[in-house]
Specification:
The strands form five sheets. A five-stranded mixed β-sheet has the order 2-1-5-3-4, with helices on both faces. Strands 6-7-10 form a three-stranded antiparallel β-sheet, with no helix packed on it. It is α+β, with helices and mostly antiparallel strands and 304 residues long. Helix 2 packs across helix 3. 21% of the residues lie in helices and 21% in strands. Strand 12 and strand 13 form a beta hairpin.
């Protein structure tokens, strides 16, 4: 690809022609806030959170769908950009429930993160919040809370473009639009729980992990999924020395951003049963715990 030089926040960056502003910025370590954009899905451009100011263009542009050009000068934190982001945040929070204390996404929620870094303003909305469906079972692993959904459509695009199963769609219009299952269908394909990972808020939650432990109490360890020989890269979340979840870890050579449901929940077979924690030898009254040296001597004696 043809190299081009652009300027982001006053810093010259060399990137490739054809890349979008959000990709070029990410390569240079500049994080542009976004909800609907995902590097492995097509561009929807509907959240408007990634808008940036580009020199010689009067209106703000969405960074997820604007390609770089040589000499382009981009501002990601100008007063105009920050004002637009605050307006987007206010719009998204108008009907969003204040249930962060009971939401599984708390601590990993982009709505929380961007509010703390861009808004921090009290709501001007005096009317009651619009009520939506809550705790709707989409499938064996996924639960939907319509009041938290910001209609980024990541889940819909994932099921259209990655699994090609298309269980979900957007129905209705305006403030009544919502994510819904197609009639007489369930979200039960082999990769279904990935929609929980890519949901930027708490609208889609994992029924298995729900209410188990707060995200900030987890010890996250990089590992490899033991479910099969593929070797998907995962992050193992543990709490009080017990595995409570598997999450995919990005590796474009193996599993990209995804992991199958079988591997995601394979830890139950190793954690939900009684397991040996020390070697044991048979003595009077049955098996008794011992140390490794004694166990190996007993083993050697038995084999001889």
């Amino acid at each position: 690809m043809e190299p081009v030089t652009i300027t982001i926040d006053g810093r010259e960056i060399e990137t490739a022609k054809g890349k979008t502003v959000i990709q070029a910025a990410a390569d240079a370590g500049v994080a542009i806030p976004h909800y609907c954009y995902h590097p492995k899905l097509t561009v929807a451009g509907n959240c408007r959170m990634c808008m940036v100011e580009i020199e010689k263009i009067p209106k703000l542009q969405i960074a997820c769908n604007t390609q770089v050009n040589a000499g382009m000068a981009v501002q990601t934190h100008s007063p105009k950009v920050l004002a637009a982001r605050r307006a987007v945040m206010e719009f998204l929070l108008i009907n969003h429930p204040l249930d962060c204390p009971i939401c599984d996404q708390a601590g990993e929620c982009k709505l929380q993160d961007y509010y703390m870094s861009h808004d921090l303003a009290a709501s001007r909305f005096a009317e009651g919040k619009e009520e939506q469906r809550k705790r709707e079972k989409f499938g064996p692993h996924v639960l939907f809370d319509g009041e938290r959904c910001i209609k980024c459509t990541r889940c819909v695009r994932f099921l259209q473009e990655v699994t090609h199963t298309e269980e979900l769609t957007v129905v209705n219009r305006g403030d009544r639009s919502t994510i819904s299952l197609f009639q007489e269908r369930a979200l039960d394909n082999p990769l279904s729980a990935n929609v929980v990972d890519i949901c930027p808020v708490g609208a889609l939650t994992d029924r298995d992990f729900r209410f188990k432990v707060r995200a900030w109490f987890l010890n996250n360890t990089s590992s490899i999924c033991p479910g099969c020989s593929t070797g998907c890269n995962i992050t193992v979340g543990s709490y009080q020395n017990r595995v409570v979840r598997h999450k995919p870890r990005i590796n474009e050579e193996v599993n990209s951003h995804w992991i199958c449901d079988e591997g995601r929940y394979s830890f139950h077979a190793r954690t939900d049963v009684e397991r040996l924690t020390s070697p044991m030898v048979r003595g009077q009254g049955g098996l008794v715990p011992t140390d490794w040296e004694s166990a190996l001597k007993t083993l050697a004696a038995g084999l001889s």
